[in-house]
Write a sequence for this structure.
C-alpha cells in the first residue's frame, strides 16, 4: 500500500513539475504581451497564482516521501533508530494525521461549496470560477494526507540531499 | 502577568516537535491547529487555517520562488559551470590559494543566477572539490570555501530569502534586493581576503598549481573567458538589473530568467529534455519544502496573534526596557541563535512578524534592519547544529572529510559574515544607498 | 436574550492602516465606554482570523462573529456592492451620507444583506475620494488603453470592459512593491493620507487626481442576522448610535488627514497630473452604463436587487444634481 501511495505522490509531483514549466510560459507570455504588444492579459495574474498553488500543494506529498521537508536531526541522530521510528509513528498518527485530516476535510468541503454555488473568484476582474483552484488544493492535500498515512506504516525513503 | 495567554505555550510546543526531528512545516501546522481548536472547535479550526493555504498561493511575489529555483537548477545541470570554473582558474590560479579563489569567484557568479544556496553549492562543489583535493588543499579550507561560497546564493540577488522576508515584513522586494548588493560585495571581498591571507600565512594549506596549466597566450585566455562568462553574465545582469532598476516585476524577471536559462543551455548545445525535466522536479520539491513552511508559519502567526501572542511579546520586550540599540542587538542575536538551530525560512517566518511592530516606534529603519537580518541569516547556513551548507557538502565531499573538519573550516567564514554585519551596522549607507539610488 | 455582547470582529486591513486606526479602533472604544463594557467588539486585523480578501467568508462561517468590511471586495459576488464599496463615477461623500441615512441607501443594504446573506448590516464609516499613482501620464480615457491597473470591484471590471485596460487586484501589502517594480502601471489604493503612509509617491512618478473612479466608499459592520437579533434592544440602539457617530467621525478625521497627505505628496518628487474633464465624464457614464447592464442581466435571472439599488442610487443622484443648484459649495 505504501508503494501505491508513493506512486500517487510521484504522479502528483510530475503534475507539479509540469505546472512549474507552465508557470514560466504563462508569465513569459504575459511579459511579452504587456511589454512588447502593450496588451496585458486579464487572466495571467490569476492563472499564475493558481499554478503556484498547484506546484507547492501537489508537490508536498512527493517532498514528504523523499524526506525533503526540512527537519532538525540533532536529536534523532542521537537516539537509536528504532526509538526514533517509534516516536515518529506516534507523532504522525496522533498529531500530524489529524491536523492534515482537518485541513483536507476543509479543502473538500470548500471545494463542494464553491462547486455547488458556482462561486467566482472574489476580487479578480477576470472573474474565474473558483472551484478548479479549490479542487487542486483538495486533491493536493489528499495526496499529502495519504503520504502521511504511508509514513506511519513505513519510514521515509532514503534519498540524496539536494 | 498573572495568567499566561495560551499563546505562550505555542513556541515550546512547536520547538519540541521540531527538535524531536519532525518536519518544521508540519510541526508549525500541527501546533497552529492544536491551539486553534480550543478557540473554534475542530471543524472551524481546519477551515480557518485552510484559508491561509490559498492566500499564500495568491501572493504574487512568492511566484518568483519556483522560478528562481528553476533558473539555478537549469544552470546547475548544464555544462556552463565547468567552463566558468576553467576560466576563473586561468585568471586566479597563480595566486596563493588560487583554486579556492577561483571557486569563490565562481560561487559569486552563480549566486547571481539562482535564489537558493543548494544549487550554487552543489554545482560549484562537484567541479571544484576534485580539483582542490587533487592539489592537496587543506580540507578545512576546501569545506569553508565551498560552504561559504554556496551561502552567497541568497546573499547576492536574486534571493529567495529576501523574497520571503519582504513578503512577511511587507517590504518592497526590489529595495531589499538592491540593499543586499553592497553588503554582498563586502562579504565576498572579506571571503577573498581571508583565503588570500590564510594561504600566504600557511602555504601548505594550498599548494601551488602547476603553472604549465596557465601557460597559454593571453588572446586564447580572453577568448575562453568571453565564451564562458559573457552569455550567462548577460542573462544574470539583465534579470537582476531589470528588478533593481524597476523595469519588471520580480516574478516577471524571474520567469524571463528561467526561460533564458533554458535558452542558454540550447545556445551552448547542453540542452536535454531530461535535464530540463530533472530541473523542474528539483524545483517543485524545494519550492514545496519552502512554501509549506511559509504556509505553516502563516498559520502559526495567525493563531499566535489570535491567542494574545502579540500582547505577550509586547509586554516581554517592554519589561526589558531596551533602547533602540539594545532592541536591535537583541533581535539580531535572536536571529543568530535561531539560525544555528533552525533553517532560515522558519527563522524568518517565526521572528519577523514578532519583530516588525517594534521597529517604527524605536525609530529603526525597517530596510536597514531587514538587510542586517539577511546578513545574520547567512550565518545560519554555516552554524551547527542546523547547517544546511554543511549537509549539502556532506552529500558531495569525499568520504574522508570529517564533520569536525568541515565545522572548523567554516568558522573563519562565519566571522567574515559577522564582520559584514558590523560594517553595515556602523555604516547604514552600505545597505541604504543603492536602494535610494535606484529610486531616483 | 443575553445581557451583554462579546464579539470577535474581523477587519481586512492591517492594524497600522488608517482603515483600522481611524475607523475600527474609535468605534470599538466608544461603544465599549457607551455601554459600560456590555457591548464589546474585539477587533482582529486582516491576516489573523482570515486572509484579508476572505474576511466576509470568515463572518459567514462563524470564524468571526462580526466583520468591519468594505463591500468593494464582494462586487464579483453581487454587483449591488459596488454602490456601497465606492461606485465608479459615483456619489461624493456628502451626497452619499444623505443617500445612506435619508435616501434609503442604508435600509436597502440591510434588507439586501438579510435577504441574500442572512446577515445584518449597519454602515460603519465612510471615506473620501481616492487618487492614482502611475508610471504613465493619464489625461483622457484613451490613455487607459493597454495599462495594467491595480484596481478592485466594479472599477476593475469597467477598466476591462470600457477602457481596454487590464485590471489586477493586488492585496494591500503588495501594492507598493507591485507599483515600484512595474508589476502594474497604475494603482488606486486609497486617498492621499493612506497612500503617503505607504510611500506610493516614491513608487511612481505621476499622481493622477482626482481619481474619479471612487468619490466615496463605505464600510459596513456586518454579522449573522441571528446574532444581531439576539442582542438586547438597548444595546442594539447603542451599537447603531456608536456606528453613526463613527461614520461621520471617520470621514472628518480622514479628510483632515488627507489634506496633510496632500502636503506630503506636493513635497515629493512625483508630479501631479490633472486629467481632462472628459475623463471624469467618461468614467461617470461608464459607471452608470455598467450598473444598468448588470441590473438588466440580474433581472433576467430573476434577481431584482441590482435594479432596486441602482434605481435608488441614481434616482437620488439625479435628484441631487437637479435640485442642489441653490447650494454654494466649493
Ligand atoms: Na542569488
Ligand atoms: Na545554522
Amino acid at each position: 500500500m505504501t508503494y501505491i501511495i508513493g506512486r500517487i505522490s510521484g504522479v502528483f509531483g510530475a503534475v507539479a513539475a509540469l505546472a512549474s514549466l507552465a508557470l514560466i510560459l504563462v508569465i513569459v507570455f504575459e511579459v511579452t504581451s504587456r511589454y512588447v504588444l502593450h496588451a496585458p492579459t486579464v487572466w495571467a495574474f490569476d492563472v499564475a497564482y493558481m499554478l503556484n498553488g498547484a506546484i507547492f500543494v501537489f508537490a508536498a506529498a512527493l517532498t514528504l516521501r523523499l524526506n525533503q521537508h526540512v527537519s532538525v536531526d540533532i536529536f534523532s541522530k542521537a537516539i537509536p533508530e528504532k526509538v526514533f521510528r517509534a516516536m515518529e509513528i506516534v507523532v504522525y498518527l496522533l498529531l500530524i494525521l489529524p491536523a492534515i485530516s482537518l485541513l483536507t476535510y476543509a479543502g473538500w468541503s470548500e471545494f463542494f461549496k464553491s462547486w455547488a454555488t458556482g462561486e467566482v473568484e472574489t476580487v479578480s476582474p477576470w472573474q474565474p470560477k473558483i472551484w478548479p483552484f479549490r479542487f487542486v488544493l483538495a486533491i493536493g492535500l489528499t495526496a499529502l494526507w495519504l503520504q502521511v498515512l504511508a509514513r506511519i506504516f513505513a519510514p521515509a525513503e532514503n534519498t540524496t540531499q539536494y | 502577568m498573572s495568567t499566561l495567554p495560551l499563546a505562550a505555550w505555542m513556541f515550546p510546543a512547536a520547538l519540541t516537535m521540531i527538535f524531536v526531528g519532525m518536519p518544521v512545516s508540519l510541526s508549525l501546522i500541527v501546533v497552529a491547529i492544536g491551539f486553534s481548536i480550543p478557540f473554534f472547535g475542530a471543524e472551524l479550526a481546519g477551515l480557518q487555517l485552510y484559508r491561509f493555504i490559498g492566500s499564500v498561493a495568491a501572493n504574487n511575489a512568492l511566484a518568483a520562488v519556483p522560478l528562481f529555483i528553476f533558473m539555478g537548477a537549469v544552470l546547475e545541470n548544464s555544462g556552463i559551470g565547468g567552463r566558468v570554473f576553467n576560466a576563473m582558474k586561468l585568471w586566479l590560479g597563480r595566486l596563493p590559494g588560487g583554486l579556492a579563489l577561483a571557486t569563490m569567484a565562481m560561487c559569486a557568479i552563480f549566486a547571481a543566477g539562482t535564489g537558493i544556496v543548494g544549487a550554487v553549492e552543489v554545482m560549484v562543489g562537484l567541479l571544484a572539490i576534485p580539483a582542490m583535493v587533487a592539489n592537496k588543499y587543506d580540507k578545512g579550507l576546501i569545506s569553508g570555501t565551498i560552504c561559504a561560497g554556496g551561502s552567497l546564493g541568497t546573499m547576492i540577488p536574486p534571493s529567495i530569502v529576501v523574497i520571503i522576508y519582504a513578503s512577511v515584513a511587507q517590504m518592497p522586494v526590489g529595495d531589499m534586493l538592491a540593499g543586499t548588493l553592497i553588503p554582498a560585495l563586502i562579504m565576498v571581498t572579506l571571503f577573498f581576503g581571508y583565503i588570500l591571507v590564510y594561504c600566504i600565512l600557511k602555504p601548505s594549506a594550498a599548494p601551488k598549481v602547476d603553472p604549465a596549466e596557465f601557460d597559454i597566450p593571453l588572446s586564447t585566455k580572453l577568448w575562453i573567458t568571453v565564451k564562458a562568462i559573457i552569455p550567462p553574465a548577460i542573462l544574470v545582469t539583465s534579470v537582476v538589473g531589470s528588478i533593481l532598476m524597476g523595469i519588471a516585476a520580480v516574478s516577471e524577471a524571474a520567469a524571463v530568467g528561467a526561460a533564458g536559462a533554458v535558452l542558454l543551455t540550447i545556445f551552448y548545445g547542453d540542452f536535454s529534455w531530461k535535464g530540463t525535466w530533472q530541473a523542474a522536479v528539483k524545483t517543485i520539491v524545494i519550492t514545496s519544502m519552502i512554501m509549506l513552511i511559509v504556509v505553516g508559519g502563516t498559520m502559526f502567526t495567525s493563531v499566535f496573534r489570535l491567542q494574545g501572542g502579540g500582547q505577550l511579546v509586547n509586554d516581554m520586550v517592554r519589561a526589558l526596557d531596551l533602547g533602540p540599540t539594545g532592541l536591535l542587538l537583541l533581535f539580531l542575536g535572536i536571529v543568530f541563535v535561531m539560525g544555528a538551530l533552525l533553517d532560515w525560512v522558519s527563522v524568518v517566518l517565526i521572528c519577523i512578524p514578532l519583530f516588525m511592530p517594534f521597529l517604527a516606534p524605536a525609530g529603526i529603519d525597517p530596510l536597514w534592519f531587514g538587510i542586517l537580518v539577511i546578513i545574520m541569516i547567512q550565518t545560519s547556513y554555516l552554524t551547527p547544529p542546523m547547517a544546511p551548507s554543511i549537509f549539502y557538502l556532506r552529500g558531495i565531499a569525499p568520504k574522508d572529510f570529517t564533520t569536525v573538519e568541515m565545522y572548523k573550516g567554516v568558522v573563519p567564514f562565519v566571522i567574515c559574515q559577522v564582520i559584514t554585519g558590523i560594517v553595515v551596522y556602523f555604516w547604514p549607507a552600505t545597505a541604504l544607498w543603492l536602494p535610494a539610488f535606484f529610486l531616483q | 436574550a443575553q445581557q451583554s455582547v462579546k464579539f470577535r470582529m474581523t477587519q481586512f486591513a492591517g492594524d497600522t492602516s488608517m482603515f483600522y486606526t481611524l475607523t475600527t479602533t474609535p468605534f470599538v472604544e466608544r461603544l465599549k465606554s457607551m455601554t459600560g463594557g456590555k457591548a464589546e467588539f474585539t477587533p482582529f486585523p486582516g491576516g489573523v482570523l482570515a486572509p484579508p480578501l476572505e474576511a466576509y467568508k470568515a463572518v459567514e462561517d462563524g470564524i468571526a462573529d462580526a466583520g468591519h468590511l468594505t463591500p468593494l471586495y464582494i462586487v464579483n459576488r453581487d454587483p449591488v456592492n459596488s454602490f456601497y464599496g465606492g461606485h465608479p463615477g459615483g456619489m461624493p461623500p456628502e451626497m452619499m451620507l444623505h443617500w445612506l441615512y435619508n435616501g434609503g441607501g442604508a435600509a436597502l443594504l440591510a434588507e439586501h444583506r438579510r435577504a441574500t446573506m442572512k446577515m445584518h448590516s449597519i454602515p460603519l464609516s465612510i471615506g473620501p475620494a481616492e487618487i492614482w499613482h502611475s508610471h504613465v501620464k493619464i489625461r483622457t480615457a484613451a490613455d487607459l488603453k493597454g495599462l495594467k491597473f491595480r484596481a478592485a470591484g466594479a472599477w476593475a471590471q469597467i477598466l476591462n470592459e470600457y477602457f481596454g485596460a487590464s485590471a489586477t487586484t493586488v492585496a494591500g501589502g503588495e501594492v507598493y512593491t507591485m507599483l515600484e517594480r512595474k508589476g502594474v502601471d497604475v494603482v488606486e489604493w486609497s486617498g492621499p493620507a493612506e497612500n503617503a503612509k505607504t510611500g506610493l509617491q516614491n513608487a511612481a512618478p505621476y499622481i493622477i487626481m482626482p481619481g474619479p473612479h471612487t468619490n466615496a466608499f463605505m464600510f459596513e459592520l456586518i454579522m449573522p442576522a441571528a446574532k444581531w437579533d439576539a442582542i438586547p434592544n438597548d444595546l442594539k440602539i447603542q451599537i447603531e448610535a456608536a456606528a453613526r457617530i463613527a461614520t461621520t467621525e471617520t470621514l472628518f478625521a480622514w479628510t483632515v488627514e488627507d489634506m496633510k497627505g496632500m502636503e506630503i505628496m506636493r513635497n515629493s518628487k512625483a508630479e501631479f497630473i490633472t486629467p481632462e474633464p472628459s475623463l471624469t465624464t467618461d468614467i461617470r457614464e461608464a459607471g452608470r452604463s455598467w450598473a444598468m447592464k448588470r441590473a438588466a442581466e440580474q433581472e433576467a435571472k430573476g434577481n431584482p436587487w441590482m435594479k432596486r439599488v441602482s434605481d435608488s442610487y441614481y434616482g437620488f443622484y439625479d435628484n441631487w444634481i437637479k435640485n442642489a443648484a441653490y447650494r454654494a459649495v466649493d
About this structure: Chain C is about 50% helix and 15% strand. Residues B 111-112, 114-115, 153-154, 156-159 surround sodium ion (ligand 1) (CB under 6 Å). The radius of gyration of chain C is 19 Å. The interface with chain A takes residues 53-54, 56, 73-74, 76-77, 146-148, 151-153, 156-157, 159-160, 166-169 of chain C (CB under 8 Å).
